[in-house]
TrEMBL record:
Protein name as annotated: GGDEF domain-containing protein
Top-level taxon: Bacteria
Organism: Promicromonospora soli
InterPro entries with a match to the protein in the record: Rev_trsase/Diguanyl_cyclase
Amino acid sequence: MRVHDLRERWRATSLASVWIRPNDWEHPAAEALAEALAEGRGVIAPAERLGAARASVGAGITEALDDVACLYAAFGRPTDVGALRAAAIGWVGERERAPYQIATHDPSTGLSTGEYLGERLRETYGTAERSGTTAGTAHCLLVLDVGLDNLDTWQRLARSAAIGRTLQQVFGEGHPMAAVGDGTFVVLCERGPATAELGQSLRRVVERNAEVLGLQTEVRRPTRVWVERLPGTHADALLLLDHLAR
């Protein structure tokens, strides 16, 4: 199997089953591990590098190891325990090297990471609880879906960068927002009569910017925008983000 085909099959398998943040999956270490496996070379060193790379973007160790298992499933081979062990060593080593490092920035979009959005939601729920109200009373999630199937890596990266710039253009500072799936973006907003109107304005700006940048074929038309009410607990809000990511 060609390296490119193996990597694409691996990515598709992982994103469909275990990987939560599509924008964080691409990495030279993934390319190196796929190449080593396809060419019958040693996988220990590249697997360790991949484990470290996964830790550096905030992926949990279970997610990182499941991702490696997806590579072997895509290749049609039993999972190599040595590769799993190496990935775990790399993951732990990176966490020990920078134990207090928190991934807050997604370089592909210029927005916050999904994990950072989750922490901001935690703060929102805590503030609401202390004030004797609920998070959903004053806040909501504005969801933007521009996702399309059958885009290659570079098309997805170009779209992510363009949507990130558009969200910053529309909302500016002070609004936690992140990509939570392949083409799905979420903004934590104050809830009010103007929220729905803001969503429609966002849709128009996204579509106009896509035309200006020549990305009409990379963005869903019409773009989907809707408001999600915050559920009763922070844990349920994280489950909602996971659901939106799928």
